[in-house]
Amino acid sequence: MNNVILIGRLTKDPDLRFIPTTGKAAASFTLAVDKGFNKDVKQEREKKDLPVADFISIVVYGKSAENCSNYLSKGKQAAIQGRINTRKYVDNDGQNRYVTEIIAQRVEFIGSSPKARDNDDDIFIPADDDDIPF
Question: How far is CA 42 from each of CA 4, 51, 107, 119, rounded to the nearest angstrom?
Answer without folding.
Answer: 23, 9, 28, 27
